[in-house]
Amino acid sequence: PTPRLMTLAAMVKGVQVRPSGVGAGVAKFAVTFFASDGSRIGSSKTLATWSGTFDWKPWASVIRPPANAATLEVALLLDGALGQALFDGAELLWNLPDDYERENLLVDGGFDYVNPLGEWTTQLNPAVSAPGFKSRAALTVSREQPGWSGASQRVLLGEAASAGTLALSFR
Fold first, then answer.
1. How many Cα atoms sit within 13 Å of 21 on the Cβ side?
2. Residue 138, Cα to own-chain centre: how many angstroms?
3. Terminus-to-terminus CA distance in the chain, angstroms?
4. Core vs surface per residue 114-129: b (16+ CB within 10 A) or e
5. Residues 76, 9: Cα–Cα separation, whole Å
6. Per-residue model confidence (pLDDT) at position 153
7. pLDDT cut 70: percent of the chain above it
8. Region class of 110: left (phi > 0), else alpha (psi between -120 and 50), else beta
């Protein structure tokens, strides 16, 4: 069975994130759920938004996948905003009792791989810059013109649960 609760967390930094006049005008984390046939379940959910200039700060949100969700897509974006947003240490974890080891379901959430964005789908050229907060690098999403830019990654919820990373049944 798909676990009922998950935590999405990261470190976030903003540099002059401001509206461009098109779209939401913020840096954001969003999630979208998909059924096993690939169809979207509802609309994308914005979990957090940021604007302005701020130093690295932690962020986390608990999410509940719909019962029929087979895939979850995590997106780190500038949505209709100018400026720069930096993301590091992105983690998607099952909410398990403290005595269970938790595996990050996002591949390279620290953006440290040789090909740092190889596991992420990118839109409009986000980059990896050094240093990050938790790691050697961070995802940097910048816009100087109206529009949006970011990176996303899909996680197969059912596959992870059946691969033995979870040894619990939730009721």
1. 3
2. 13
3. 10
4. eebbeebeeeeebbbb
5. 11
6. 93
7. 85
8. alpha
**What would the pLDDT profile of 13-46 be if each residue is shown by its tens digit?**
999 999 988 778 899 999 999 999 999 999 999 9
**Ranges 29-38, 105-114, 128-137, most confident:** 29-38
Q: Global pTM?
A: 0.84
- As a whole number of angstroms, the distance between CA 124 and CA 144 comes to 12
**157 membership: H or E segment, kind and range:** helix 157-160
Position 40: which residue type? Answer: R
- Give the pLDDT score at 97: 67
Residues 6+ apart with CB under 8 A from 92: 6, 7, 8, 72, 74, 104, 105, 106, 109, 155
Token pair in block for residue 78:
């500038």
State phi, psi for 95 to the nearest 5 degrees.
Answer: -85, 100
Does the pLDDT value for residue 129 go beyond 80? yes
Per-position b or e across 48-86, b if 16+ CB within 10 A of its CB: ebbbeeeeeeeeeeebebeeebbbbbbbbbbbbbbbbbb
